[in-house]
Amino acid sequence: MSSGNDRQSGALSKPTFSEEQASALMESVFGLKASRVQALPSYDDQNFHVYITKTKDSPTEYVLKISNTETSKNPDLVEVQNHIVMFLKAAGFPTASVCCTKEDSTTSLVSVDSGSEIKSYLVRLLTYLPGRPIAEIPISPQLLYEIGKLAANLDKSLEKFHHPKLSSLHRENFIWNLKNVPLLEKYLYALGQNRNREIVEQVIHLFKEEVMTKLSHFRECINHGDLNDHNILTESSKSASGATEYKVSGILDFDDMSYGYYVFEVAITIMYMMIESKSPIQVGGHVLAGFESVTPLTAVERSALFLLVCSRFCQSLVMAAYSCQLYPENKDYLMVTAKTGWKHLQQMFDMGQKAVEAIWFETAKSYESRISM
Question: Which segments constitute the Aminoglycoside phosphotransferase domain (predicted)?
Fold first, then answer.
C-alpha cells in the first residue's frame, strides 16, 4: 500500500503523468508502441495498464510503474526489488516478469520540467498479471491456509537471495515496517479525538512494552510486507462436484519489501485477510496453520502475534487518514481498509488477546491432526 522509504514525510511528490505521457514513455524508454493506456489505482506512485499492438512471442499487456520523487532518490532499493521479483519468478512463484529498457536496464530515471523545478521519477515496466484479487472473491479456509503457506515459502525462499545492494532493504525509518509502529505517534492528529485514537495510542504503548523488548528473539528475514487482499490474485476452476474453487495465480507489489521477521509477515497477512471476511476473527488460525506448515513460530513469536496484527491495523488506518489529508482526491482508494478495519480492530481489542489467541491457536492445531491422519 505504499512505496516511498520516506513516504510519510510529505516531501514526496506523487507523479501526475497523463495517459498520453505514459504512452510516450513506453516508446521512448522501452521501445514499445502502446495501443491503449489506462490509469490504475495507487497509493503514492503511479501505475498504468498498458496494451501494446501484438508482436511475435511478446506479451501484449504491461504495467508501467512510475515511482514518487522520494523513492526515485533510492535507485538501489528499486533495483533490489526488481531482482527479487526476477528471483522469485525463477523459483516458481507467480510474479510478473521485469522488462528491460532499450538500454538493457531494469529502471530508467526520467526528468520532467514542471515549470518551477525539474523533478525526476524512476520508471520500470512489468508484465501484466491477470486474475481476480482476493478482495473480490469468497475466501475459503483452504485458500487462507494456502495464502499463509505462500507467505512463509516466499520469505523462506528469499533466504537464498543475494545481491550486492541488499543492504538497501534495511529501511530504518520506513513507516510500513512493523518495527516502526512508534513512528505513528507523529500522525495521530489525523484521527482527531475519539475512541479510535485511544485504541491506537494503547496499541503503540503496548508495542513499546511487549514487542520492542522481544525483537532480538524474533527470526529475521526479508518481508514482502504487503500481502494484502488486492495484491494477491486468484484464478477459478470447477471442482468435480461443480463448485467454484480458487487458487493463487499472482503476487503483486513488492514496493514495501524490507528486512523484518517471519512473525511480521504472518501478522501482516492475517490482518489483510481479515479485511473482507465475514468472520474476521476466525481468519488468523487458518493463515497461521498454513504459515506454520512451512515455518513454525517459536513461543515468543506466537506471544507477539496478536499485538502485531493490531499494530498493522493501526499502521494502515492511521496512515490512510493522514494520506487523505495529503491526497483528498485519492480518498476512495486510500480508505479501502478503513471501511471495515476500525470495526475489526475494535472487536479484537474488546475480545482481548487471550480470547483471540485461543481461537487462532485451536484452529491452527486442528490442521495438525488433519495432516497427521
Answer: 45-281
Q: State the pLDDT confidence band at 334, using cuts at 50, 70 and 90.
A: low
Q: How confident is the model at residue 333 (pLDDT cuts 50, 70, 90)?
A: low
Q: What is the pLDDT of residue 288?
A: 98
350 catalytic, yes or no? no
* Domain shared by 116 and 191, yes or no: no
Q: Supply the pLDDT for residue 371.
A: 56
Residue of 259, 254, 234, 255 lying closest to 245 (CA atoms): 234
Among candidate residues 44, 45, 155, 226, the one labeled active-site is: 226
Give the separation between CA 270 and CA 27, rounded to whole angstroms.
41
Report the distance separating Cα 348 and Cα 200, nearest Å: 12
Residue 196's contacts (CB-CB under 8 Å, 6 or more residues apart) are 317, 342, 346
Q: How far is CA 12 from the centre of its chain?
A: 19
C-alpha of 124 from chain center: 18
One domain for residues 94 and 219: no
Q: Are residues 198 and 335 in the same domain?
A: yes
Taking Cα atoms as reference points, which of 321, 311, 2, 68 lies closest to residue 180?
A: 311
Cβ distance 315 to 178 under 8 Å?
yes
Distance CA 66, CA 157 (A): 28
Q: Which pairing describes strands 232-238 and 220-223: parallel, antiparallel, or unpaired?
A: unpaired
For the chain, the domain total comes to: 2
11 found inside a domain: no
* Whether the predicted model's global pTM rises above the 0.85 cut: yes
Q: Are 68 and 15 in contact (CB under 8 A)?
A: yes
- Kindly report, residue by residue over 151-196, the tens digit of the pLDDT: 999 999 999 999 999 999 999 999 999 999 999 999 999 998 899 9
Residue 115's domain is classified under what CATH number? 3.30.200.20
Q: Measured at the alpha carbon of residue 211, what is the angle toward residues 300 and 310, in degrees to the nearest 5? A: 100
87-106 pLDDT per residue, tens: 999 999 999 999 999 999 99
